[in-house]
Amino acid sequence: MRQIGKLPVIVKDSPGFLVNRILMPYLVEAGNLFETGASITDLDEAMLDFGMPMGPMCLLDEVGIDVASHVAKTLAAHYADRLVVPGALGKMIQAGMLGRKTGRGFYLHKKGKSPQPNPEAAALAGTGPASALSRKELEERMVLLMVNEAARCLEEKVVADPADVDFAMIMGTGFAPFRGGPLRYADTIGAAALVARMDRLAANGSTHFAPCALLCAMAASGKKFYAEHLIPPE
Hints:
Elements: H1 19-35, H2 40-50, H3 56-63, H4 65-78, H5 87-94, E1 107-108, E2 116-117, H6 119-122, H7 135-155, H8 162-173, H9 182-189, H10 191-203, H11 213-221
Antiparallel strand pairs: 1-2
Helix pairs in contact: 1-4, 1-7, 2-7, 3-4, 7-9, 10-11
């Protein structure tokens, strides 16, 4: 693997393996927030502020709306309790708005120009509660789902170590490197605080935010994904 310039991570054979398994709930949530009132710009800017190399709508355009929809449907078939594919993706595919490869998706991609939000795609946005959410609240919803799925992958032993999760997400998706990956980020916030936020969202009707058993156990015990290493005094 290294001879061909790749960095391997050993994973258990399971739907979505690791990176797609964690990334897809994030992208699906972005699509669902878009359908309930959040703008393309707010969704992308929220995650750029978090430290991602590009926002979710821009990433969907890069991947291809048709490809992303296919992967989302494949994973939704296995995780129907927490993944519902946004209907807007199907409408975009029917209209030929497949992203950068067709010159238009959530953005208009014109040669030599910076991508601009596509009015035709923006017209597919619904009206709903997401229109009242701040960029910080949009960020929280998208990031919490990545953290929860990352913890679930560890819980299910898709990988053996938290460092494998964080390494794969930073190298494979550009997950804000200075945050150390989703599980290192979880440690900086604390499992108890994360679980409280997820419980609040789940209680308000967004049941796909229900925290996994591992996070709940860590919240109760005060444990972290990474052991704390004390720096010896000089």
